[in-house]
Write a structure and sequence with these properties.
InterPro entries: TRIAD_supradom. The structure is a single chain. The chain has 273 residues and is of the alpha+beta class. It contains six helices and 15 strands. It folds into three domains: 24-116, Herpes Virus-1; 119-178, no CATH class; 181-246, no CATH class. A hairpin with a 6-residue loop joins β12 and β13. It is flat. The two termini are 23 Å apart.
Length: 273
């Protein structure tokens, strides 16, 4: 997923051995057995041991991939993940989050949760988040600007400029060059190879989820299938068919029978149930 990676001020994360709210154990970190042996280990609610640094890095990676409900990745019996939910209050405490890190986590968790249930943009004038109720209408009203300036303020959902054209409903903006920036990104992004899939070369590096339209990237290290973090569809990054449909003719590590799907020319509309 397209993420907003942030660099934090470097600090040593450590537990206070006098903290009676934590349960400390003398065993290896279940998230990273090779982590610093000098760091204290504390138990997660599920009973797995962690250091604050390994828990922080795991949850941060999940957030960067669009996952805002954290789960324990520790292996159970060597093969399956624990997958027990980790409440954010516990993550905040056991990952020793700084105020800066807490703000980053909480803002992004709220953003991802909102993104899952509606379409929204920042108003180009006041920067307030505005939800688009009608997915076919490019002319959107900002209620905050309308109240503040005493007259109706509309803007274009695609080019984010004050509206020019017929209002309050239109599927066409009159600004020259107005276009969907997400479509432009899909059309111009670089191409990548998928080393784990023989013959998978020159694939667009960014795809729009076939179900909800969220922009998704491939890490180039796993099989050809990816999971959309918003609608949870498993789909093939190469042919853009669902995983179940693609697997009827090829395995996850084989080139698709229909080859690389061309660059997408439109963003799928998510019809939420």
């Amino acid at each position: 997923m397209i993420s907003r990676f942030k660099t934090f001020r470097k600090r040593v994360k450590k537990y206070d051995p006098r903290d009676l709210t934590m349960t400390f154990v003398d065993r290896q970190d279940d998230l990273d057995p090779h982590s610093d042996s000098g760091s204290l280990r504390a138990l997660l609610p599920c009973g797995h041991a962690v250091t604050p640094e390994t828990l922080f890095q795991w949850c941060r990676t999940q957030l960067e991939e669009g996952i805002y409900i954290f789960t324990c990745p520790a292996l159970v019996k060597g093969t399956q993940k624990c997958n027990k939910t980790l409440p954010y209050t516990e993550v905040r405490r056991l990952a020793d989050l700084s105020p800066e890190e807490m703000q980053y986590f909480e803002e992004n968790m709220a953003y991802k949760a909102l993104e899952k249930i509606c379409e929204f943009q920042a108003c180009p004038r006041c920067k307030t988040t505005v939800e688009r109720q009608d997915l076919s209408n490019l002319c959107v009203q900002c209620s905050i600007c309308t109240v503040n300036q005493g007259s109706v303020f509309h803007f274009c959902w695609q080019c984010l400029r004050p509206w020019r054209g017929s209002a309050p409903r239109s599927d066409r903006c009159l600004y020259k060059g107005c276009g969907n920036k997400d479509v432009l990104l899909l059309q111009t992004c670089k191409t990548i190879d998928l080393p784990q899939v023989k013959g998978a070369t020159c694939c667009p590096s960014i795809r729009a989820c076939p179900t909800c339209g969220l922009k998704v990237e491939h890490n180039q290290m796993n099989c050809k299938n990816v999971k959309c973090p918003r609608c949870h569809l498993n789909f093939c990054f190469i042919c853009l068919k669902s995983k179940s449909e693609c697997s009827k003719t090829t395995t996850p590590f084989q080139m698709c029978s229909t080859g690389v799907a061309p660059r997408q020319t439109a963003i799928p509309t998510w019809h939420r149930r």
